[in-house]
Amino acid sequence: MTVTSGTGWQETYLGGSPDAERSMLAEVLPRIEQIQETVSRRQSAQIRRAFHNKGLPIGVRFEVSADLPEALRIGFLRPGAVYEGFGRFSRSQSFRRADGDLDQRGFAFRIETDLGRQDVLLSNTPVSFASDPVIFRVVAAIFVENSLLVPPVKLFRELGPGDAVRVMANLLRPPERRIAFTAQRYWSRTPFQFGDSAARLFVRPEGALRRVGTSGDPDFLTTDLADELRKQPRSFELCAQLFVDEARTPIEDASHVWSEEVAPPIVLGRVILPIQDLDGAAARDLAERVEGAEAFSPWNTPCLRPLGRSNRARREAYRRSAVNRGALSNNGTSSEAGALSETGGSLSDTTGSSSATGGSSPAGSEGR
C-alpha cells in the first residue's frame, strides 16, 4: 500500500502562542486534583484516577502488520514485530458506578518495546465533547461538583447556548451500554505524529457485535470479560487515519470526526487479548499494580508524538492526577516526547509541522 497523505499538518496554540496556551491551561489544571478529591469525599474512598476511575486490567500482546506501509514503519512499528504488555477496559466517569449507568467506555493499553513503553489511550466514541482542553476541564468540574439537575444550567452560563447544547448531546448519546468490552470500536480522538505524517488511531474488534445480559449485576461487563477471556482470546485491529487537510481532519479540534471516507483506515497491527484467568493470582497482581501504581499517558511513547492542544494539556493533567493518587509519575520522561515538554509539547515555540525534525464526570480521557 502506498501512503499518499498525512503531511502538510501543523499545530497551533490557544491564545496564539505556547506561552499564552500554558497560561490558559494553568488556570484550569488544578481542577484535576479538585475532581479527584471531590470524588474521593463523596464516595468515602481513597483518591483514584480523575477519570476512568473504574477499570479492569488485562494482559495484551501487539503484533505489527507484516505489510505495514513503508511510510508508517516508525520506530517500534517494524513489520512482524511482537510486543507484550497490559491493558485496561474502563468506564469513563469519575465515579465508580454500575456498568449500566449512562457513560462511555475506555480502552487503554501499553506495550513494552525495545525502544521503551508505548501507551495508546482510546474511548468508544470517535470525538470528545470538548473542542479544546479548557472546555473539557470546565465541563468535567461542573458534572463532578454538582447534583444531576444543576450541570445543564451551569453549562449554558459558562459555555453559551451553542456549546452547551453540543456538549449535552454528546454526553447523552453514548453507545449502547450493553455491548461487550471486546465488541466495540475505540478511538484516540486526538492525532499523533508518524515521522512526517499525522494520524488518529482507532481499534476495531475482529469478532462480531455482542450484547451482554445484565442479570442485575452492577459489574456485568467486567464479569462478562472475565468469562470470555477464560475460554477464548479476543483481538482488535489497530488502525491509523492519516491527516488530509485542516478542514476535514483538524489537528487541534478533538470534537471533529475524521471520516473514514476522507481518511481511509490503514491497519498497523493486531491487539490481542490472550486467554487468561482474570481471577488468578497473576491477574490480581497485575490489577493491583495497574490500579495502584501505573498511569497511562499518550506521552508515554518512544516515537509516536502526541499532537494538538488536547494532548498538550493531557501531559500535565495526567502527571498531576498520577501524583495526587500516589501512582508512578514518569509520564513522558522516558521518551522522545519528554524532551519536547518545555515548548508546550511541540517541536518549536511557533508551530509543529510535518517538515520539522527531531524526536519530535462526563465521559473523559484524562487521568488514566
Note down, in words, how this protein is organized.
The protein is built from eight helices and nine strands. With 368 residues, the chain is of the alpha+beta class. The chain has a single domain, classed as Catalase HpII,  Chain A, domain 1.
Number of domains: 1
- The CATH architecture name reads Beta Barrel
Query: Which percent bin holds the helix content?
Result: 25-40%
The strand count comes to 9
**How would a crystallographer describe the biggest sheet?**
9 strands, antiparallel
The secondary-structure class comes to alpha+beta
Give the strand order of the largest sheet, numbering strands 1, 2, ... along the chain.
4-3-2-1-8-7-6-5-9
Principal-axes shape call: globular
CATH fold label: Catalase HpII,  Chain A, domain 1
Instruction: Name the average pLDDT.
Output: 83
List its salient traits:
368 residues; alpha+beta; Catalase HpII,  Chain A, domain 1; 9-stranded antiparallel β-sheet; 8 helices; 27% helix
Quick structural overview:
The protein is an alpha+beta fold and 368 residues long. The chain is built from eight helices and nine strands.
Topology:
Layout: H1 18-28, H2 31-43, E1 55-64, E2 82-91, E3 105-113, E4 116-123, H3 133-145, H4 151-159, H5 161-172, E5 186-194, E6 197-205, H6 220-231, E7 234-242, E8 265-273, H7 281-292, E9 305-306, H8 309-324
